[in-house]
Write a structure and sequence with these properties.
The complex is a heterotrimer of chains A (87), B (977) and C (417).
Chain A (H helix, E strand, L loop, with lengths): L1 E4 L3 E4 L4 E5 L12 H8 L8 E7 L7 E7 L5 E6 H5 L1
Antiparallel strand pairs in A: 1-2, 3-4, 4-5, 5-6
Chain B lengths: L9 E10 L2 E7 L3 H7 L6 E2 L6 E2 L12 E4 L6 E5 L9 E5 L13 H4 L19 H13 L14 E13 L3 H12 L4 E4 L15 E2 L2 E2 H13 L4 E4 L2 E7 L3 E7 L14 E13 L3 E3 L12 E3 H9 L8 E6 L3 H11 L3 E7 L12 E3 L2 E6 L6 E6 L2 E6 L2 E5 L2 E3 L12 E3 L4 E3 L8 E3 L9 H18 L32 E3 L4 E2 H9 L5 H8 L12 H12 L3 H4 L11 E2 H4 L17 H6 L4 E4 L2 E4 L10 H14 L2 E4 L4 E6 L3 H8 L12 E7 L5 E11 L2 E6 L4 H15 L6 E4 L4 E7 L3 H8 L14 E6 L2 E6 L8 E7 L3 H14 L3 E2 L2 H10 L32 H4 L10 E8 L11 E4 L11 E9 L4 E9 L8 E6 L4 E8 L14
Parallel strand pairs in B: 1-7, 8-9, 8-15, 9-12, 15-28, 17-24, 18-19, 18-24, 19-20, 34-44
Antiparallel strand pairs in B: 1-2, 3-4, 5-6, 5-7, 10-11, 13-14, 14-15, 16-25, 21-22, 22-23, 26-27, 29-30, 32-33, 34-40, 35-38, 35-39, 36-37, 37-38, 40-43, 41-42, 42-43, 45-48, 45-50, 46-47, 46-49, 47-48, 49-50
Chain C lengths: L4 H9 L17 E7 L3 H14 L4 E4 L15 E2 L9 H12 L1 H5 L10 E5 L2 H16 L5 E4 H7 L14 E5 L3 E2 L2 H14 L3 E3 L4 E7 L2 E7 L2 E10 L5 H7 L7 E10 L9 E4 L4 E5 L5 E11 L7 H14 L7 E12 L6 E4 L5 E5 L5 H18 L13 H4 L17
Helix pairs in contact in C: 2-7, 2-10, 3-10
The chains are: A mainly beta (87), B alpha+beta (977), C alpha/beta (417).
Protein name (chain A): Sarcosine oxidase subunit delta
GO biological process, one term (chain A): tetrahydrofolate metabolic process
Organism (chain A): Ruegeria halocynthiae
Chain lengths: 87, 977, 417
Amino acid sequence: MRITCPYCGERDRREFYYRGAAVDLDRPAPDAGGEAWDDFVYQRENPAGPIRELWFHEGGCGAWIVVTRNTVTHEMIDVQLASEVKA
Amino acid sequence: MRVDGKGLIDRTRSIPFVFDGVSYNGYAGDTLASALLANGVRLMGRSFKYHRPRGVLTAGSEEPNALVTVGMGAGQEPNVRATMQEIYPGLDARSQNRWPSLNFDVMGINDLAAPFLGAGFYYKTFMWPKSFWEKLYEPVIRRAAGLGALSGEDNPDKYESAYAFCDLLVIGAGPAGLMAALVAGRAGADVILVDENSRVGGRLLAETYEIDGKPGPVWVDEVLAELAVMDNVRIMTRTTVAGAYDQGTFAALERVLHHTDRRPNGAPIETYLRIVAKRSILAAGALERPIAFRDNDRPGIMTAGAVRAYLNRWGVSPGNNVTIFGNTDDIHRTARDLLDAGVHIAAVIDSRHDAPLSDDYEVLRGAQVCGSSGRKGLESITVRRPSGEDRIHTDCLAMTGGWNPSVHLTCHMNGRPVWKRDIEAFVPISGAVPGMVTAGACSGSFSTAACLRQGVEAAEAALGDLSLKAPKTAMPQAEDTPYEISQLWAVPGKGRAWLDFQNDVTVKDIKQAATENFRSVEHMKRYTTQGMATDQGKNSNVTALAILADATGRGISETGTTTFRPPYSPIAIAALGAGAEGKGFKPQRFATSHKATVARQAPLIEAGLWYRPSYFPEKAETTWRQSCDREVNMVRQAVGVCDVSTLGKIDIQGPDAGAILDFVYANMFSTLKVGRTRYGLMLREDGFVMDDGTTARLGETHYLMTTTTAAAGDVMKHLEFAHQGLRPDLDVSFTSVTEQWAQFAVAGPKSRELLNDLLDSAIDDESWPFMACGPISVLGVQGRLFRISFSGEHAYEIAVPARYGASLFDILTERAQALGGGLYGMEALNVLRIEKGFITHSEIHGRTTAYDIGMGRMVSQKKDCIGKTMSERPGLEGSGRERLVGLKPIGESRELLAGAHLYNEEAEPVRINDQGYLTSVCYSPTLETMLGLGFLADGPDRYGAIVKMVDHLRGVTTLCEVVNPVFFDPEGGRVRG
Amino acid sequence: MRFSGLRVLKEGLTGNKGWAPHWREPEPKSEYDIVIIGGGGHGLSTAYYLAKEHGLTNIAVLEKGYIGGGNIGRNTTIVRANYFLQGNSEFYSHSLKLWEGLEEDLNYNVMHSQRGIINLFHSDGQRDAAARRGNMMISQGDDAILLNRDELRRMLPYLNFDDLRFPLYGGLYHPRGGTARHDAVAWGYARGADQRGVDLIQNCEVAGIDIENGVVRGVQTSRGPIRAKKVAMVAAGRSGQVAAMAGMRLPIESHVLQAFVTEGLKPCLDHVVTFGMGHFYISQSDKGGLVFGGDLDFYASYAARGNLPTVESVMEAGMTLMPMIGKARVLRSWGGIMDMTPDGSPIIDRTDIEGLYMNCGWNYGGFKAVPGSGNVFAHLIATDRYHENATGFRLDRFRTGNGIIDEEGKGSQHNLH
């Protein structure tokens, strides 16, 4: 598997750490309530198809990136910096 | 039998080798199979279940029968295909899965019991009496099963792994692959051409085709000569592409030294390659199918393609009196080749009623072979014609049931091949592996001209994708015979007709599976073991599923195939795991004090990837406890020195450094004064404790965080995520400086005395109170000093750039000794912290909350932080939770054991009465008793109560008093000096 | 038809003509008392125990492909009861007891072989954790023995005792642990359920779950609508998609786990050995293949195939731990889809929809749970009460924080369990 880091270019999957769905970027307010927090920490859409997910270029530049990838075919569709997605 | 004038072997070089203890000679270029056939040896192996005598079926890596063990001793190599093993002087091979000998195999008795050993018989029996399964049935089955044997000793050979990158990977160097490589090479593409054989050419080496009027091998040599001078083309023989993976990644294995007994210094026997290719062309050819008929498994019966390969490539006729049987024109090609070579043909049997006739030999049209005889080698066959059955004496049967394109790699990414009726075979669908196109026989085009043409076309398509210009290519002239086949899977009749030769799966087994309602192709496979042998069904799967389709009244297309999985052909674990032997498994990290530590003969223990000293033995000390107790006393009474460099150190700078720390720590850091250090507790977002450590504020916008040794990497990721993923608005950056600083704990009442001896300006309580930090100069070197303590003593950690670490360690050691102190290791460190009730990852093991470890109030109510909201869930605090306590033995037994569980004094020590467990224990020389830290249900509410520690494993029961976990100096007076 | 050695003998002597289908191939009826979505190990055992222990037989098991085609058809066959947290401990203990009588119960040889499992440890801290585990196992009534280095060496002399990167301190030995023939487990349960009247419907994909006013009414399938009083979702690997049909979202992320088998070899490994530092476990099958695996590929996937980095890390672990297996050749690799939950433990529960039940989230430990899971799930479906050995697998534990069963201690990131 190969991932294109926005800073470093195409690199082997071995350089990256996987965290999970990009829902982790959408942290609720402290008072958002139990359901919102349960959704954020535990519940997952878990789609069979394109998913937005978080990877960390641990063996490279140290960027957290948002990868859009198909979970059925492993096709890489898009990559963005997490910091830019959040900005 | 060797045939004069044929073959690509070097008859000037005779090569001696040994098979089953007998010496033979072959020629350079022979495989073990061809050389044995040349010596008249037909019996080469035994089958898996019935131990039937077997000879070669094929001439390639798909060989199911002729599996041998090569070499002796630790490096013996089991299950080697005789068809792929090139001979070399001294090659020592032997047959396997037989006892006492290949010729006389006691387990051959299984063959007589065959009626009772059909498909799935073992699911229906061996159930009574119950205890006999493990004691009798299974051991007997295990001994009878298996093929070759490992030596049982450590593998002595060397293996390597490597990466390769290219524009275009061409898999297979037959006519299609060679043309593709030639076109792409001429266009300047970076090409890797691989072939599993020892020479390129594919079927061109095994047939008598001409290309541009030249013999196939001559044309191959010309192409090879042109490719050899192209810097942009790499040709790798003896290399098998085993798997296709995402984004153009391929796994391949190069068998570097199996064809020789030479082991040049450092050269690997095999190299595992990860090839990343922008585009790929699969030109893997096709595999010929046997036909199922009664007793079609005797030595001497093989595929027609194999017979031609042995004849044309190796100059061997597998028989003196050959019969040919099949359903395609390959029959006649085989007959012509044999006749040209002067081999006698016993009969030519073509199942097609409209088969072509020949002036040179008789063709039995519309006939079928329906049986054979010859116990350890073919003696005769029975032919069935409308007129009746005849027996024909023969010592070799060349059979062809058509060809199966090698679609395997196109299916590794879940592609499914489609059935092509006109060739009675599965062909790949396009696009199944992104970036890959297929060419030649593997796409279902069997003529030489079509292979050459498709090779060119595939290369042109790839070059287009690579934005390279394809040169004009003159198409070589070659045969373009149409492929005609009439369906013939199995010849009807009684008896056993083999499909999966190695696993002994017969037509009857497939039919029985269908009868028992194992009708899905996957059920059939699993029930009968069809296709699960070392060839993974390459020789038999398509035929088996055709028979299943017939038995279940479905079409082949509807029946479908089982799943093709990597690897295409098996790869040694040692190759895939190359480099990991022994210490190579993971990196080793050494602190700057490592050499001095080793010199003092301190036993080392692993801490993550680091090595740390367990204790520093002194003369006359015979047990670790003596050393440990001494080191603890030394710290409590004088001064101890300990290398703590392995702790994670993260440099945090920026105007918002305080803000991000407030966000990642449960407690407050933005209010910390410059020049001060604070203990910090870090939570995961789910509210449980993640890590702890101290963080120092070195400047207005500059902090230095320490983490535990094990969690350093995780904390770094966590910080970067908190910043980039959650708070990119904050202006802050993180740098791991773990390796840049050597850091030593100096602990004990004389710690300041020791330091003041070295510091360029002395410190005192006023300038360096408890938790102070800042820059210092030590013997002229700029460093940092932190007044922090993990022992409860007046203590410091002094840090210098790593290049001074070794030197400072020696000086600190010497000075400490002069003050009646010395070095201490992890054992003493652990005792010191348990005496003080300090936690490590034994306590914050991922299932404990701040509340559980008595730090609930540290979670600041003045701010949000990661984990705060979820830590307030009802289940994570409040009554019933197991919480940190201290435990002291009070009864007869004084022994405490980490991992023991806690129960109420009178309760039976069973799960439902479980009250908690011990996480850390030590003998405290300070308090002269064992001490334990543990988690106990509502523990802090039970100080003074008695609980029972039970260790079932080690048979220890100890009554304990529940106490505050801070056993020693609870007021904390010592740390303030 | 009852299976026995005598029957095999008789059939052998009479040309093996008398064998009958292991199970029928019925057309789906328009209505059942209970519809089970998923004909894998857990679905089949659920049907079996509903029929056997609760007398409920008007049941259909709906399978979109072939029965036993899920993770029970592709795993490393390990059977054990060596958990250390309440909630897991009693459940797996219950399951192991069912395993121990399974051949007799099913009249099917699933080749359950109690060859013993040894979990290696490599430091004092790991030994303490192993002791905590072993003590829990014994207090639950299971077996555990703490081996020191010398004892370990006597049992597994082929391990790398000389220069392993993480030296061997000892092992936690679970003699009753072992392996079983995975496909046979599915077939045995299928045959047993079928014999008791359960309809096994293959090639029948569920496309929708009918719910009216918060009550389940039936399912829509590729072979038409089927009404049902109760519907049980047991479709690990596709749990999320099935739950979505009922408008539910699950705390599950799907990940691929690879496993490997080598060519057949003469016996060389008697036990199941697990090497935690390398995330590696291995045993040898009765056919002679070394069966082994390691960690997840770590990214969400439904592809049922793996990638090379994990292949290599598994092989590397094997090479450092037991260099003698180097010349064994990997014959086949495969990948299964795991329901990964945020605490690594499963979910067996009712849902907010009346008559709709769920069984999912087995992470990569579902095989050994097959008998226990079906047994306790059948109890829940039949009685609407939790089985006494499965009270801890509630869905709401994540929301409340009550009874999170996190054996790995890794928290809510799904792929770390």
